[in-house]
Amino acid sequence: MRTAYAVAALALCAISPTTFACTLPPLVAVPAKDKVGDQGDNIRAAATAYRDGMQTYTDCIKAELEAAGGMDKAPKLTKALLIARNNAAVSEVETVRKLLDANVGLLAVPASTFNQGPPQPPPAKK
Q1: From CA 106, how far away is CA 48, in angstroms rounded?
Q2: What is the tens place of the pLDDT at every residue in 66-111?
Q3: Separation between Cα atoms, residue 115 and residue 47, nearest integer Å
Q4: CA nearest 67: which of 115, 25, 35, 21?
Q5: Closest CA to 95 of 27, 18, 42
Q6: Is residue 6 part of a domain?
Q7: What is the C-alpha to C-alpha distance for residues 33 and 103, in angstroms, rounded to an integer?
Q8: In whole angstroms, what is the distance from residue 2 CA to residue 95 CA?
């Protein structure tokens, strides 16, 4: 029985670098629109840190795929798993971005002459 556990542990260790090497960042909490209050800047900062963490995560997944042989030579199961993880991460970031935009707003832009009305044509040359 111990031999079976040892073989299973060795097999798990052999596949774990591809399966567990990339660390998924924690999901950012985006409150409902009426609960944001004056925390918009803090929520945006947390969302930016989350997005940066997810970029690192997807870069790690891509590196794992390259280390496994790339799109052409990686084992089918490994390639499918890594592509699914990448696509799920991208989908999650897009969903968080939409939620952030709807509830908090992506960027607080102060009113100024630079963002009021349609763009003005450049001054005529003399």
Answers
A1: 10
A2: 999 999 999 999 999 999 999 999 999 999 999 999 999 876 555 5
A3: 24
A4: 21
A5: 27
A6: no
A7: 4
A8: 46
- Let me know how long the chain is: 126
Tokens representing 9?
């542990």
Distances from the Cα of 87 to the Cα of 73, 79, 80, 81, 94, angstroms: 20, 12, 10, 10, 11
When divided into structural domains, the chain yields a total of 1
Specify if 44 maps to a domain: yes
> Is residue 54 within 8 Å of 93, Cβ to Cβ?
yes
**pTM, rounded to two decimals:** 0.68
DSSP annotation of 96: H
Q: Would residue 25 count as lying in a domain?
A: no
Amino acid 95 reads T
